[in-house]
Records
---
Amino acid sequence: MADKVTIAVDAMGGDDAPGVVLDGVAQALAADGGLNVVLCGPADVVEPFAAAHERCEARATTEVIGMGEHPAEAVRKKKDSSIVVGCRLVKEGEAQGFFSAGSTGACLAAGTLVMGRIKGVARPALATVIPSPVRPVVMCDVGANADCKPAYLVQFAQMATIYAEKIVGIEHPRAALLNIGEEEAKGSQFAQEAHALLREQLPNFAGNAEGGDILAATFDVIVTDGFTGNVCLKTIEGTSKTLFKTLKGIMMKTPLTKLGALAIKGGLKELMAQVSPDTYGGAPLLGVKGACIVGHGSSSAYAVKNGVLTTAGVVRAGVSEIIAQTVAAGASSATME
């Protein structure tokens, strides 16, 4: 049996909450005998579920942070919301990790303000695992920090490298800076300064990566500022959805194309599984004290299950502790503030 770990879960996070969240938690509990869950949400939602499932505790809350609310303001005002309470459980040691498919901004704010930053981390960053037919790629930052200093990217790369090794299972990951060309002198002043710092301070730095290198998995870790990373991620997601929708339309056009679709149905399912973001279930907020995974708002029960299991995996792998050790052993963060 895996080491026991307790994860706080936001029952009200996501477009189809609480239904898919409860289904996903049930699947996660069945899959991991060492997993304990503290389910945060309205009493009439979490208490009956906890009573019916072993290793699940209910934590009744009276507030919910909506997708359209101002993140930091909502976190400060709604102290009894499922997101804030879940993060507080981690801070107070009742849980080791937190998972939510709710408001990304609120999760980032609560993770940073309630759970707290690891000492020496200038800015926590949101990473994501981008699936591809070749192999997964970790990209960081994808939305936590729209405005960055070049020095921040060194820590982003360090934290993403640790995640790639410990959670994705990539041995000796090669990290690259997202830029408009491979050459060292390419890009804005920001990119050139970041490149120089990464080359100097990051042992696994392999140079610049262009946009096409992401899905080609030329590198294992892609580092960038949160604005660029978020636009890049949303572009990849949108392109993937459009491609599959267009392909489906073409295949359903005539009886002959329908027959062809039937012939390659197995291959298409395999391809969709390979590029599905649901495999990891969410994006980690790296640099906070504890595990914090943010799922997509449209998460299915399968994605929630994997998100909860990934959160438990981050705890068991000691990712936050390794980040703390790495930052402490590295350059002073004084120039990053």
---
Amino acid sequence: MSKIQSLITLVHSLTHAEKKAFRIRSGRNKQQPDYLLLYDIIDKHPALSKTEIQALFAETSPGATFETTSKYLFELLLESMLTLRKEQDSFTFLYKKIIHARMLYEKSLISESLNILEEVIRLAEKFENHNALLLALRLELDYLLAAGFPMMDEKTLLKKQFKLTDALKYIRKINEQSSLYEILKHRILNKGQIRTQKQKDDLNDLVFSEISLVSSLNVDNFEISKLHQLFQSNYLISVGDYQSALNSYYELNNLFEENKHLWNKPPIYYLHTLEGILESLRSIRNYEGMSYFIDQLKNIVCESVTFKLNVVCTTYLYELFPLLDHGEFEKCSKLMISYRDSLYEKFNSLPRSRQAELSLYTSLVYFGNGEYQKAHKFLNQIILHGKNYFSLPLFRTIRLVNLMILYKMNDIDLIKYEIRTMMRDIGGFERNYRIERFLFRFLSNPLPSPSFKRIQVWNKTKKELDDIKQDLFERKILQIFDFTAWIESQLTKIPLSEVLQQKNALL
């Protein structure tokens, strides 16, 4: 991302409080400076490109240098945000206090410096911020050494050293545990969900390492307990054990609820926890149980504009899934309309993974309502920029849904081209899904016109589709969308909404 694009993104992500703080800070100048003119252009014209912003700035401030002004504005915004953040965030507050202690020490105000460090140590222990605790303890010992350990016996000195050693131990263990969780998430995000028993076995080294590590740690520590439950629940979801994953997520949710003072700002891990619970509940078709946790999502309070948009998107998707899974496409459309201003108008501000997810499910709603042109247009936002989304596991499913849309639009030539391309791309993966291979065959051959012949085809394929649905590794892609239901609707000429309703009634 270019520097000016970073500045544009930063300005548009500012909260109301951050904008107000910046205005107050800038209002001290008698004349309106160039950087404030640039800020107003970006803030008041969100649709302008960076080239248009640069041209407009040149008109309003002909004597100013755009690059210098934009760089200076970026730094001022960060300083303004930091001033506001120190009153809201324990992390920022602690490190600000540590800087104050260093400044006082440099001015030979050693007693005052040690008093601040003592406060930092107490608060760092309360908030379980081991990195801040380690830094404060180290500075305290350095300053005491320089002062000749005034009024301190050896027992007190040893106690402080032991506390520092414990902080180091926790940091090392938490880092080891974080590393295992990061590797697990990297494999899931870049290789997709588990498709074979071999892929499942390949994760065992991580599982054994994580269990061995946790057994040697103090599980009463919030960070250690959090990382353990996150690792377990993500692993269990990746192998399709949704009930066990749900139990692990419940424990994690209870842990968060009991330790709200330790939440990150924004509470990213808490969002991941709620999303994991909702995903597990959807997987076992416990839609009633989802309502409580959807309300928990709505109750999350955060100043970050980007994070709030992510929460809104997550809330919308899990309100949509029960309707989509039951084939209630008209209700899905009404829900979409209710989120137009709060979500769809801010589509480009979402992370790429969320953009892909939102595009997929929005296209499925249009598809279910027979609005194939709209479905194709919405999905093209992702497909036409495939190089930006190709690494996402969801991209393969997006291309499958696109094939269904093309099929309903009778674009046979493009279907054949897309299938050849997908087969070539899938060749790089360890294994493709059975439902993918089935869809390629199904879409490559025209359906017989007479109804009785279509029923014959359905009777022949029904057993294979039932086997696919029972396959543990196929359930992951069928949870995104039940492709078997669509195939059944094409062969039996029963509307997709009715087929989905019948299938859910049997569960």
---
Amino acid sequence: MLVAITAALFCRAWLQVELLSDGLPRYYAADLAYLVVPPILLALLFPVLRSHRRFIARLFPRRDLTLELVLNAFAIGFLLRLAAWCYLFAGVSFGLYVNDDPTAITGPIFAFDCAAPHVVALGFLVMSVMVPIIEEVLHRGLIQSWLSYRGRVFAILSSAFLFMLVHNPSSWLFAFFAGIVLGLQFWNTKQLWSSVVTHATVNGLIQVDWRCFHGHWNPPASQVPVWSVGIVCASVFATAVGLIIYLLKQKSAGVPNAPRQ
């Protein structure tokens, strides 16, 4: 499975480079290139998906898709993104993230200006629909389930680690933390609705950041630390993490009987 995922992502990276060389915008090229991932994974993992199709179907029970579940999962996704923003702003405020280039001193400057409608639409289709379903089925539904015989901690941390590795190194910390949250959702609820909705919410908000919201803030060293901003952001970060933990506290029911490897 890991070989199939690696092969699909390698093909995507190659196609993205080709599209960039043709002059397409960075994010648009990335989204277009991702369209090759589903058919490649389907072809390479067809024997696995076919033999475990009933198990995968059980991960999406219709009776569990309730308004309460959707709202809970949406709230967790929103809080994850809020925590990421607060972590970044607190890091800048306390001097943990510094750009020493004197020409980079700027801000705070914020603007809201979306890309072309077809670019935004493709971004949401890929990142908020396709990616959450594919990654949750693979990383939580199959990989975490296969590792569940080693116990909750090992299964969740291992799947979160592998989930982290398929993301950009600059986002590894957030991807690992998000992977743990998504893994806990799956472990606690025995279905993938929760983690898919949370994953889609996080990616949807990221799309708003990338496609529409533009922010620049790199205060000069003489102004760091910016205590007023840093303390507020650190407090909101801690509150968001606390609320995520609270929302995750459901009755743990394990995971469905794992498919054989």
